[in-house]
Design a protein that fits this description.
- The complex is a heterodimer of chains A (217) and B (349).
- Chain A is mainly beta and 217 residues long.
- In chain A, 8% of the residues lie in helices and 67% in strands.
- In chain A, strand 8 and strand 9 form a beta hairpin.
- About 2% of the residues of chain A have low confidence.
- Chain B has 3 domains: 98 residues, Tetratricopeptide repeat domain (Serine Threonine Protein Phosphatase 5, Tetratricopeptide repeat, Alpha Horseshoe); 111 residues, Sandwich (Immunoglobulin-like); 87 residues, no CATH class.
- In chain B, the strands form 2 sheets. In chain B, strands 2-9-8-7-4-5 form a 6-stranded antiparallel β-sheet, with no helix packed on it. In chain B, strands 1-3-6 form a 3-stranded antiparallel β-sheet, with no helix packed on it.
- In chain B, 30% of the residues are buried.
- About 5% of the residues of chain B have low confidence.
- Classes of the chains: A mainly beta (217), B alpha+beta (349).
- At the A-B interface, strand 1, strand 6, strand 7, strand 8 and strand 9 of A face helix 6 and helix 7 of B.
Amino acid sequence: MKTIALTGILALTAAASGRSQERPTFAFRGDAGFVWVRSDSAVVGAGGPARMHGPVLGGEGRVLFNGFAVGVGLLSGTLQATDQTVKRDLIEGRLVVAARPLPWLEMSIGPFVRAYITDTSTERWVFWQARARVDAPIVAASLTSYLELWRALSSEVNLVTGAGRMQGGEAGLVYRPPQRPYRLRLAYRLDDAAVGGGRRGSQTLEAISVSVIVGGW
Amino acid sequence: MTRAAAVLALSLLCGAQGLRAQSSAGDLMGQGVRKYQALEYDAAAALLSQSLGRDSLADSLRARALTYLAATELFRRQRDSAIVAFRQLVLLNPLYRPDELIFPPQVTNLFQEVRRTTRAIAVSVPPVSEVRPRADRFFTARVLASSLADVTVTLAQEDGTQVRQLYSGPVADSLVVTWDGLTAAGATAENGRYVLRVTPRNLTADGPRARLVMLEVKQEAPDTLPWPPELGTPPLLPDRTSSGPAFRSLAAGLVVGAAAVALPSIMAQGKDATGARFAVGAAVGISGFVGFFAHKPRPIAANVRTNTALRDTWKKKLDQVKGENANRLRSIRLVVRAGPVTIAERASE
């Protein structure tokens, strides 16, 4: 699976660089949000609470050229158990290569890393995502809705049980204020990871975020 | 081949016999005239009587034969026979007059005497006439009378329904009656068969009988202009913005909003999820309604003005075509084909 993902990335970047005759443009997105993590597995988050939540901050930068984009994203925050006894840091990072075969469709692929860090241990997930995003304009050029679904091509976790199927999605709204160089985004994201082939439970991450986007995304 | 040859031979034989019958009637009349000129009146009377006995003799020759027969009978001192011949002549053609250079005064005087006492009418129509109703082209019929007679000239449908009375009054010698192609109600005559009837107003047992002519009337409509094509798009521009974007916006908002709400069910197998998704789903759904109302169809003033001008131009053109067609239809043409003149039965008068 990883080979397939790498091949996909290389193909996309090669095609993008081969056609790169326009000057690249840059885009940045800053996110502020709130995350909920729920784990119904005895293994996942062993020694920790089953439900955690907390605010997060993040961002992503992209280089765009000829309908292709290469981006790097980072998100970080501190999660706290519902009973406020345990804290964990959440860090997510990803590399993405994206292309738009159609004006309303973006396909992307890339590695994704998520880590839950405590003072004594780090639970690290690494997986390769293939994503498809559909943009559905509501008011042309000023208000657009979108829906993005993804699935992991491969996944790893430093837990004894190992990782299983991973998939998720994101739905949201992008608003461009008139005569302004930025856009505002409201999004809801859900990632679900099965542990041990699904027989040992799962871990679900939900996030709601507000973002500011500068540049052509 | 044999059958074809037989048919051809039979046709030629029949044709030759008809030709011979016609020429023999004419020959007989010619021989009779020559006998008259040779003062052989008995022989002339016999030959002329024989020629008149043939149906194939044309009316013009028949009139000539009757004139010579009457003169012959007069010179044979058969005055009554001469009167009978002249009476037949007057009935045949009320306008016929014996040539005064050929026949002596006693012959022409007798003819005038018979003509005065024999009341006869006739009608003559052209075989084909072209009539333009409400224009200056009429159908004409010439009514002839041997002596002063009161006649009524009517046009009726084949079933007897009167269409129009064309004339009613005296005819001294001849009268031209015209018909403008209209009915009594002023409408153009329809296609069909009509009867032109010339009837004496005072019918008597020994008086002249009505003359009938069958007329075949056919309307020939003039070419009319086609109506201008209906206005469509193009050249018409949309009067209002399309409702498509409004519904697309609404659909986008509702579908994506519903997807946000349904994400846990789809991706996390319905696990208990937070209410955050409802906030985003509601926001996206409401945006869909905002988009729907933002894109609601509304008039496009510039297009409305352009379309109004286009429609006005089209209507003017249509009115012009209608006017031109109405003018053309007013000049409709009637072709009138006349049949032979027949004499009415006494009972039908």
